[in-house]
Amino acid sequence: MENHGANVDPVELSKFSSLADHWWDRGGALKALHDINPLRLSYILAHAGVNGKRVLDVGCGGGILAEALAEKGAVVTGIDMSGAALAAAKQHSVQFGRRVEYRQLTAESLATQAPASFEVVVCMELLEHVPSPPRIVRACRELVRPGGHIFFATLNRNPKSFLFAIIGAEYLLRLVSKGTHSYTKFVTPRELKQWGRTSGLTFESATGMHYNPLMRRYSLGGNVHVNYLMCFKRPTAPR
Ligand code: SAH
What we know:
Elements: H1 10-18, H2 31-47, E1 54-58, H3 64-71, E2 75-80, H4 83-95, E3 100-104, H5 107-113, E4 118-124, H6 133-143, E5 144-155, H7 159-172, H8 189-198, E6 202-212, E7 217-220, E8 227-233
Parallel strand pairs: 1-2, 1-4, 2-3, 4-5
Antiparallel strand pairs: 5-8, 6-7, 6-8
């Protein structure tokens, strides 16, 4: 359903706001985000340099990825609509001396204020939590400079992802809190590619992110049946 107001789901926001005290508890409710963070970072660095570049983290939460990017020399702006998540992010970045600028804004409103302002845009685990994911993709395309890269991470939608991401991760292995994800909001790689294309982006690559419950380890590569990352480029020439 197309939503012409702010592209924000208040129920989703309150879920993440209520977790505000746990963003930096590496063994806590958001442990999975900490565990996959080195993989996301390595995927980004394999496709785009970030040192000295202006990088935007859309839906940055407590700043787990934003801080890691800042550590790599990026000039990072993090935006999120949860004031509580941003407060946790600010507190942590000040405490650990990591410079990130945090702002409570939607990608859509920043895109009207500051179009084409970032060399790299990252948007991880957000598309499956908003009313209209294609609008986020479009806003990211407006925010990145021509020639720049955009990275998404989300969850595929199929029987296997239901089994792994909902039944497995939320109920059996308790990797994420129950109720974190709604299956119907998951995004197939085909949909994401299509939204990228209609926004004027060029598809660069996609990779799966897998969890091995025996080893308790995440790894990158292989199929995109459940968790996956996708990289797009904004073409240099006007289209
Ligand atoms: N990207 C972070 C956090 C993912 S959790 C990471 O992967 O580490 C999803 C985050 O999106 C939450 O912090 C939530 O507050 C935020 N969010 C939800 N809807 C949003 C919206 N419309 N615009 C910006 N942020 C949003």
